């Protein structure tokens, strides 16, 4: 057996990614399904389903989204679902082939003691030791921008913003807001229901439309989608609503960026103003970097850019950290 496996894990509200030192990277939607009854159990042939498989069979399952806001929810059913999901995620990189597994796990910028305790409980028995770091820091580490940057990680449950300047950020360096992907989905869904009376939509439908066609900017684009109104098929254009919903999150992010820059060391402020990095699934909104730069232009010259492959970047940074940090930085959880 090989001596040690390092892993980096981004446990997200919507999807989670694991990267291993063996060269394997897997992304799975953070969803767990358990059959509703014996009929469903016999039909599905399994006691638990994960990711896209769970969503495909959601009408026959009780569905859990166990990592609400990037942390395990504090109730028995969701904690059990979180444990099952994390076990499935880690098993996807074949840890049984190694003597020990050390992992760096990423969380939102601000999590409570209870949240951290639940996270450790979820991982106990699966890894030998862990480090917990924030998502923005892992992103900065992955793109080699820890010397001086401001990272804005727009996830599903939260948007996490952090000043990075060559060391692990403190609580004072970081800010978390609740306006993120799920919030945007809710805004878009409400707009659709108001414009198309009687429209029957689900959050999964709205999320899919957003992933395929989200954008910001002055020019309105056509976004044709199919929905049902009282069971009747309708094909409608939601391009204006998509634009409006995506634009609605810009002031929230802009204000948070301004706040964390304003409270930075004065000598650091010009450095991070010129290196604002957008990451997370929300950074895939077309035109976002330019729009955010315009929103915060009143604080001076700024440079805003998006990382490539943002859905994997946090896990990649976590893996890089896992392999570079000395053993004494880890906490044993055996």
What does this protein structure show overall?
- The chain has a six-stranded mixed beta sheet.
- It is built from twelve helices and 17 strands.
- The mean pLDDT is 91.
- It is flat, with a radius of gyration of 21 Å.
- The two termini are 19 Å apart.
- Strand 15, helix 11 and strand 16 (304-306) form a beta-alpha-beta unit.
- With 334 residues, it is α+β, with helices and mostly antiparallel strands.
- Helix 3 crosses helix 4 (113-123) and helix 5 (135-142) crosses helix 12.
- The chain has three domains: 2-138 and 312-332, ATPase, nucleotide binding domain (Nucleotidyltransferase, domain 5, 2-Layer Sandwich), CATH 3.30.420.40; 144-179 and 251-311, Nucleotidyltransferase, domain 5; 181-247, ATPase, nucleotide binding domain (Nucleotidyltransferase, domain 5, 2-Layer Sandwich), CATH 3.30.420.40.
CATH class of the largest domain: Alpha Beta
CATH-derived architecture of the largest domain? 2-Layer Sandwich
- Mean of residue pLDDT? 91
Which stretches are poorly predicted, pLDDT < 50 over at least 5 residues? none
Number of domains: 3
Structural class: alpha+beta
Proportion in β-strands: 25-35%
Morphology call: flat
Tell me the Rg in angstroms: 21 Å
Spatial strand order of the main sheet? 3-2-1-7-8-17
The helical percent reads 25-40%
- Outline the biggest β-sheet: 6 strands, mixed
DSSP, total strands: 17
CATH superfamily label of the largest domain: ATPase, nucleotide binding domain
Distance between the termini: 19 Å
Order of helices and strands: EEEEHEHEHEHEHEEEHEHEEHHHEHEHE
CATH names the topology of the largest domain as Nucleotidyltransferase, domain 5
* DSSP helical segment count: 12
